[in-house]
Write a structure and sequence with these properties.
By secondary structure, this protein is of the alpha+beta class. Helix content is 50%, strand content 14%. The longest helix is centred in the N-terminal third of the chain and has 12 residues, at 8-19. The radius of gyration is 12 Å and the shape is globular. Belongs to the glutaredoxin family. Has a glutathione-disulfide oxidoreductase activity in the presence of NADPH and glutathione reductase. Reduces low molecular weight disulfides and proteins.
């Protein structure tokens, strides 16, 4: 998950994922390294955080993860 230390949506995404049983979240802190922010933009086309990947699959930001959770699709993705 591309993140920053102070982003409330990043924190909400982390809480949501942990509530669904995700034990380890690799946080890539783009506020500490501009090259990582550029990497995030190259991978996603977006400048905002969080940008979440499940395995190698790009999922999106917090709103998308919350939508997937409400629809039951997040659970299926986490099982892969």
């Amino acid at each position: 998950m591309y993140s920053t230390r102070i982003c409330p949506y990043c924190q909400a995404a982390e809480r949501l994922l942990k509530s669904r049983g995700v034990e380890r979240i690799e946080k890539i802190l783009v506020d500490e390294n501009p090259a990582l922010r550029e990497q995030m933009i190259q991978r996603t086309g977006l400048k905002t955080v969080p940008q979440i990947f499940i395995g190698d699959m790009y999922v999106g930001g917090y709103d998308k993860v919350a939508q997937l959770d409400r629809s039951g699709e997040l659970e299926k993705l986490l099982e892969l």
